[in-house]
Give the backbone structure.
Amino acid sequence: MKNILKTSVKLLLVFNILFVIIAACAQAADMEQKFQGFNLSGYTDEGEKSWDVRGETADVVGSSIKLSNVDANAYGEQKVNVTAEKGTIDQASGDMQLETDVIIKSEDGSTLETDYLDWNRDEDLVSTEEKVTITDSEKGLYVTGQGMTAKPGLKNAQINKDITLRVDTKPKEAEKEVVEVTCDGPMTINQAELKAEFIDNVVAFSKDRTLKADKMTIYFEKDNEGIKEMICEGNVEIIQGESVSLAEKAIYNAIEKKLTMTGRPKLKMTLGGGGLDFKN
């Protein structure tokens, strides 16, 4: 009888162990699932689609969904498409991290490229600490820098440091006239106000003229007609050939081709060609 009881106890222990193993395996299966072809959409309170995300494959691990070959869209003032080799979605917050060959394309022709991107859907912001490149062939615009925060449509963006911008001042004319601006950063772009602002150690090159300043603001004309005005502030230095001029502020009117310097300007050598005003 004792042997029978001992055998029964051993069998019960074995069954309990097997049950625990089976339960653990079932839980692991629930925690990690793989899918071929993944599609997820979000909608506004009014029932309109606000975003969608597709992936070639999806691994569900806990509250995260890991995607391959991500293709996502955001719908707002304009449609924005985002692609990447890899992505991770947090099911609780809806936030997404994108990695490797991340490309954002907006309907207005702007394109952003980087290697990593955080997309905060509640705040509708994308950000990265990696190098970014923004191009807009229609506007003749090319920008690179390190780190960025922006709206997905790139209409409002801040690039954090080591910025280089090249823009064609006459994008609709056959003959190009390119201005290159560099700065330590940050740089902000506000397409609604048609302006870009550069901070710290700003240097602008255009043909045979170089402008240096602590801060520079460029205003663009409507309908992609090019640069309207450049305002340089703080320790302004203008170099043309062997001539150097100093001032606290300089305003360049690109339409009239006129440069006005204010704040006790100093002229080391006379600039030729006219079009230069000094005001105390």
About this structure: Residues 166 and 180 are 4 Å apart (CA to CA).
